[in-house]
Design goal:
single chain; 146 residues; mainly beta; OB fold (Dihydrolipoamide Acetyltransferase, E2P); six-stranded mixed β-sheet; five-stranded mixed β-sheet; 3 helices; 11 strands; 49% strand; globular
Amino acid sequence: MRQYLSFMLDGEMFAMDLLSVREIIQYAGETEVPLMPSCMRGVINLRGAVVPVVDLAVRFGREPSLIGRRSCIVIVEREGVIIGVLVDAVNTVLDICPDEIEPAPSFGARLRNDFIEGVGKANGRLVILLKVETVLSLAELAGGIS
């Protein structure tokens, strides 16, 4: 059994491995930094540390996220670097057995196939399980690849 944090983005449910999540904070704005890649929304101050914030919608090739009252920043640790991920709303922690995960579809997905770990079945719904290491690839984020 693996645990995943589920969240909403542009009306779709996604999830990421809970082991990569450090915390979830309420969205309170960010400071824009000139010349950052388009998917980088800006930076926030997290208890004295400057943390970059990725707009996951833009990273997926969509329009920038609209901020709502349930918007959150999921704080993720990736290769020893702390990154914030802007999502529309955090749902719940899902327990998904490996045999309940199907391979990523080879076509028809609205995001890069290498971003998808698989499609999980949880509580009668399908949820897209993200590969955090690819979605938040430091080399791609630093290079400005969306």
